[in-house]
Design a protein that fits this description.
Blueprint (H helix, E strand, L loop, with lengths): L4 E2 L2 E2 L2 E2 L5 H19 L1 H15 L5 E3 L1 H7 L3 E6 L9 H14 L4 E6 L3 H13 L2 E7 H6 L1 H9 L3 E5 L6 H15 L3 E3 L10 H9 L1 H14 L5 E5 L4 H7 L9 E9 L10 H4 E6 L2 E6 L23 H8 L4 E6 H15 L5 H13 L8 E6 L7 H7 L3 H15 L1
Parallel strand pairs: 5-15, 6-7, 6-9, 7-8, 10-11, 10-15, 11-14
Antiparallel strand pairs: 1-2, 2-3, 4-5, 12-13
This protein binds pyridoxal-5'-phosphate.
The site of pyridoxal-5'-phosphate has 21 residues, from helix 5, helix 11 and helix 15.
Length: 410
């Protein structure tokens, strides 16, 4: 059964908990999105941009070497990292930029964690001739400098957020504050399936293309549906994108993998399964990591894109109603999975995606040869170059950086 959406709620999760000042802006987007969904011209333009600008369909690759390595089920990798800008995020940016254009907006604003959504938003702003402001936590700016550099080259203004934990949730707060004051001109491009209605529904609609492609591709290759679809869950956009097409097929097990960080205690991870409870934050009701007093708790993950306390409402509903399972992978397990995938398959995954791979590598050996596991590689690992080199304590890379500084100062 598909998840039912009623007035912006997936079961009890979702809604739009926003100040009065944003109600008009949200209604405007909802109504334009509903019109666009039925508009053939919109659909054609969206599909054409996915094809010719982003490079869809992305490949579904049979991971022959890793299948042999684990000796169990057959592994397929959906390579969303092959998208323009290196991750699935570009898909909902293209969709939302088209909605912004239809509404006559002049500026796109966005928040970003890993920087992928910021780069994707800055990219579509450049493509569609719109101004662009990106809100980003100071901590994330420090660990994702290459993406900050590219956003600026693409013409965006990157605004450093120094409140709270200086990460993604604080960037969302600042972006919302700015939007409240500027919604006549600005369109807020939300980077996942979260925030107030209609964003979770709208972004899921755009991202569903992932699962639609997986279904078509696996049927061509294997003449049947996969037994498992596995994806990492930050806010949830790549996961619901990969899962949505399969929700009605009860035999397909859908597994979301959260950031297990360094341990099970609150603050050491970003696992809503482990420590999450019902709450309202950043405009929507869902599962959040909260302290006993009900404040949003600090989170940790080696992957900036998973370092977020909430989960998209549709995913919370799927989890609650047992249509999706949740698991987690530790930082060090993700790094191991990153290394293994790179060496054996020639695919360098993003650290976020490496969490989904880490889980798959735990289940693959236990499964029979005729089972099929699809892992969604949400993005490629180029952006993580510095983080991974540091995690691996790569001496030569450290030497290179020191020399690069000298070259820079000459
Ligand atoms: C490559 C990649 N994968 C996954 C995520 C997590 O986001 P979501 O859960 O919305 O797919 C991010 C977020 O920045 C990302 O950059």
């Amino acid at each position: 059964m598909k998840s039912k959406i009623k007035n912006g709620y997936f079961d009890k999760y979702g809604g739009a908990y926003v100040p009065e000042m944003l109600v008009h802006a949200l209604r405007e987007i909802e109504s334009e999105f509903e019109k666009a969904k039925k508009d053939k011209k919109f659909q054609t333009e969206f599909q054409e941009l996915l094809r010719s600008f982003s490079g869809r369909p992305t490949p579904l690759i049979y991971a022959k070497n890793l299948t042999k390595h684990f000796g169990g089920a057959k592994l397929y990798l959906k390579n969303e990292g092959a998208n323009h800008t290196g991750a699935h995020k570009i898909t909902h940016c293209i969709g939302q930029a088209l909605i912004a254009k239809r509404l006559g907006k002049k500026e796109l604003i966005a928040e970003t964690g890993a920087g992928q959504h910021g780069v994707a938003t800055a990219t579509v702003a450049a493509k569609f001739g719109l101004k662009c402001k990106i809100f980003m936590g100071e901590v994330d700016i420090a660990r994702q400098r290459p993406n900050v550099f590219w956003m600026e080259q693409l013409g965006a203004k990157v605004i450093s957020v120094s409140s709270g934990s200086k990460t993604l949730k604080d960037a969302v707060n600042e972006a919302l504050k700015y939007w409240m004051a500027n919604s006549d001109e600005s369109y807020y491009v939300i980077g996942s399936v979260l925030g107030p209605h209609p964003y979770p529904l709208m972004n899921r609609t755009f991202q569903s293309v992932i699962g639609q492609e997986i279904k078509k591709q696996i049927k061509q290759k294997e003449h049947k549906l996969p037994d498992f679809v596995i994806a990492c869950v930050g806010g949830g956009s790549n996961a619901i994108g990969a899962f949505h097409e399969f929700i009605k097929n009860k035999k397909v097990r859908l597994i979301g993998v959260e950031a297990g960080g360094t341990g099970k205690k609150l603050g050491q991870n970003a696992s809503r399964k482990e420590n999450g409870s019902l709450g309202i934050f950043q405009g929507y009701k869902s599962l959040f990591l909260q302290t006993e007093e009900g404040h949003i708790a600090p989170t940790h993950s080696v992957a900036a894109g998973l370092d977020y306390p909430g989960m998209g409402p549709e995913l919370a509903e799927l989890y609650k109603n047992k249509k999706m399972e949740l698991s987690s992978a530790l930082d060090r397990e993700a790094i191991e999975a990153f290394k293994l995938t790179t060496k054996h398959e020639g695919i360098i995954p993003a650290l976020e995606s490496a969490h989904a791979l880490a889980h798959a590598y735990k289940v693959l050996p236990k499964l029979a040869h005729n089972k099929i596991v699809v892992v969604n590689i949400s993005g490629r690992g180029d952006k993580d170059l510095f983080n991974v080199a540091r995690s691996l304590n790569d001496k030569e890379f450290k030497k290179f950086l020191a020399e690069e500084i000298k070259r820079y100062e000459k």
